[in-house]
Amino acid sequence: MKRMAWTSAVAAVVLFAAGAYGAQQQDFSKVEVKTTDLGGNTYMLEGAGGNVTVAVGTDSVIIVDAQFAPMHDKLKAAIAKITDKPVKYLINTHYHGDHTGGNAAFGKEGVTIVANQNLKTRLATPPAGANGQTPAAAPAEALPAQTYTDRTTVTSGGRTAQIVHIEAHTDTDSVVYFADANVMAVGDTGAPNRFPNIALGGTINGMINGTQTYLNMANDQTKIVPGHAPVSTKAQFQAYHDMLVQIRDRVAKLKADGRTVDQAVAAKPLADLQAKVGANDMATDNLVRTVYSQV
Ligand SMILES: [Zn+2]
Fold first, then answer.
1. Which domains does the chain have, with CATH numbers?
2. Beta-bridge mates of residue 150
3. How many whole angstroms from 96 Cα to the centroid of ligand 1?
4. Which of 9, 93, 158, 172 has the fewest CB atoms within 10 Å, counting from its CB?
5. Do the beta carbons of residue 290 and residue 248 sit within 8 Å?
6. Helices 281-292 & 2-9, crossing angle to 10 degrees?
7. From the CA of 146, how far away is ligand 1's center (Å)?
8. Ligand 1 center–CA 200 separation, angstroms
């Protein structure tokens, strides 16, 4: 039974890991990269893994995230169709393999990888996976050469990325804002009409505070690039933030009322939201368990 309880508690992480690392089994040769022009010499690339943001400057390029390792050549080819300028900086939104898998290849080419200090630690000394096995440490060239703690900026070719650390989806998260193009990359901290993905190092309160942090940086025209959803607006992310508050408050009330975690799950406190976002029962129950453990 002890094992069962543990399994439930980390089920959300298990599901994540299956999605992120299991995808390495997929056939990348069939993946086509789709490029979307966001204006202001800034683009979004969709392929396999988290969406990539590309900021083209006068003599160089800043990219945000690098998908899975086998996507490197395809990402490079997509960037080459936009510009002949070289990639100078790669900023990681968080440590998951579907966002950092390409680090090693870009790092080998001399691209400077920038990330929160916690991300470097996670890649250098990976935590044990849900199956109890510890993944191999990332090679040196995959590690960020430039790290920060609270906030920093990166400027290249006249383009500036404002980078702010939040602890929402994981404890390695960075939000990256290109003010000149009014484009913001928010990694896996959320997406409109989706339940939050609270992975290892993340918390529901971190999700709420983190989304509020970047909502404060955004305006009604900001184009927000989520890791795994279409480009979104501030209004859509405000609604997502407000849903997070509802989720936390409903589960916290059940806990404060003395319900056990199983009773809280059985009470189906998120039923209306589940219907709205189209989540299945297992994901919803796991979310209740995760939030219950954190409030
Ligand atoms: Zn992630």
1. 2-234 (3.60.15.10)
2. none
3. 5
4. 158
5. no
6. 100
7. 21
8. 10
Q: What is the pTM of this model?
A: 0.91
Q: How far is the CA of 259 from the centre of ligand 1 (A)?
A: 31
Q: Greatest CA span in the chain, whole angstroms?
A: 62
User: Ligand 1 center to residue 77 CA distance, Å?
Assistant: 24
Q: What is the pLDDT along the chain (295 residues), one digit of tens a residue?
A: 334 333 333 444 444 443 444 455 688 999 999 999 999 999 999 999 999 999 999 999 999 999 999 999 999 999 999 999 999 999 999 999 999 999 999 999 999 999 999 999 999 999 887 788 888 899 999 999 999 999 999 999 999 999 999 999 999 999 999 999 999 999 999 999 999 999 999 999 999 999 999 999 999 999 999 999 999 999 999 999 999 999 999 999 999 999 999 999 999 999 999 999 999 999 999 999 999 999 9
CA distance 273 to 243: 8
**Residue 170 alpha carbon to ligand 1 centre in Å:** 8
Distance 196 CA to ligand 1 centre (A): 11
Ligand 1 centroid–CA 20 distance in Å is: 7
CA dist., res. 271 & res. 276, Å (int): 9
From ligand 1's centre to the CA of 94, what distance in Å?
A: 7
